[in-house]
Amino acid sequence: MAYFMANATRENCQDECRLSPNRDAVEEDLKKIGVECTKVDFDDANVQEDLDQLIKKYNMNYHDEIHICRETMPNFDEKLKIFFEEHLHDDAELRVIKHGAGYFDVRAKDEQWIRIPVRRGDFVFLPPGIYHRFTTDRSEDVVALRLFRNNPKWTAFNRSENGDKQPIREQYLKDVSA
C-alpha cells in the first residue's frame, strides 16, 4: 500500500522512509494525481491476457524489459542516481514489476511525496507531466516490463524551472485541478 513518506536522501532512499506515525495514501489520494495501480498475476496461466488488456486499455504499442541490478547493469550507481532524480516525462510511464522490489515516489497535490512500494505483479501508471522518481529496495534487483505508446523517447525533465515550464507539466496541472 502506498503511503506519504518522510524525506528520502540518496543514502536512505532504498529504505521504506515512512512517516512516524505512518500515514497511508489511499486509492483516492493516487487517483487525484492521475496515478493508477493494480496487480498482474504472473503465476496465472492467463497472465498474457491480463497484460494484453493493460496494453489495450492504455493504448500501448511498444514494450521492453529492464533489469536494474547491481550485478548486471553497467554503471549501476550512476543509473540509480538518475532514476532517483525528481523528473517528469512527456509520455505516460507504465511499469509491471516481474521480479524484485522497489519504490516509485510521486508528488501529491500539496507537494508531499507519496511512496508506492512495488513488487512482482504490481502495475503502475504515471500520467505524463507528473514529477516522480524510482529506486530499488536494498535487494538492488528489479525486472520491469515497460509499456510505451510509441518507441520510447527517454526524455526526462528534471525538477526545475525548465521542467515546470514544459507544456506537458502545465497540462498535467490543469488535468489534476479539474
Summarize the structure.
Pfam families: ARD. The protein is 23% helix and 38% strand.
Describe the protein's architecture and organization.
The chain is of the alpha+beta class. It has one domain (3-177): Jelly Rolls. Helix content is 23%, strand content 38%. It is built from five helices and eleven strands, in the order ββαβαβαβββββββαα. Strands 1, 2, 3, 4, 6, 7, 8, 9 and 10 form a nine-stranded antiparallel sheet that branches. Strands 5-11 form a two-stranded antiparallel ribbon. A hairpin with a 5-residue loop joins strand 6 (93-107) and strand 7.
Give the arrangement of secondary structure elements:
Blueprint: E1 3-5, E2 18-24, H1 27-32, E3 36-39, H2 47-57, E4 62-69, H3 76-84, E5 87-89, E6 93-107, E7 113-119, E8 122-126, E9 132-136, E10 141-148, E11 156-158, H4 161-164, H5 167-177
Antiparallel strand pairs: 1-2, 1-7, 3-8, 4-10, 5-11, 6-7, 6-8, 6-9, 6-10
Protein name: Acireductone dioxygenase 1
Binding site for Fe(2+): 87, 89, 93, 132
Pathway: Amino-acid biosynthesis; L-methionine biosynthesis via salvage pathway; L-methionine from S-methyl-5-thio-alpha-D-ribose 1-phosphate: step 5/6
CATH architecture: Sandwich
- What's the CATH class label? Mainly Beta
H/E series: EEHEHEHEEEEEEEHH
Overall radius of gyration: 16 Å
Instruction: Write down the CATH topology.
Output: Jelly Rolls
Q: Hey, roughly how much beta strand do the residues contain?
A: 35-45%
Main sheet attributes: strand count, strand direction, barrel closure: 9 strands, antiparallel
Query: What is the residue-averaged pLDDT?
Result: 94
Our count of helices gives: 5
Helical content band: 10-25%
List the uncertain runs.
none
Shape: globular
Structural class: alpha+beta
Question: Can you tell me the number of structural domains?
Answer: 1
Keywords: Amino-acid biosynthesis, Cytoplasm, Dioxygenase, Iron, Metal-binding, Methionine biosynthesis, Nickel, Nucleus, Oxidoreductase
Protein name: Acireductone dioxygenase 1
Pathway: Amino-acid biosynthesis; L-methionine biosynthesis via salvage pathway; L-methionine from S-methyl-5-thio-alpha-D-ribose 1-phosphate: step 5/6
Binding site for Ni(2+): 87, 89, 93, 132
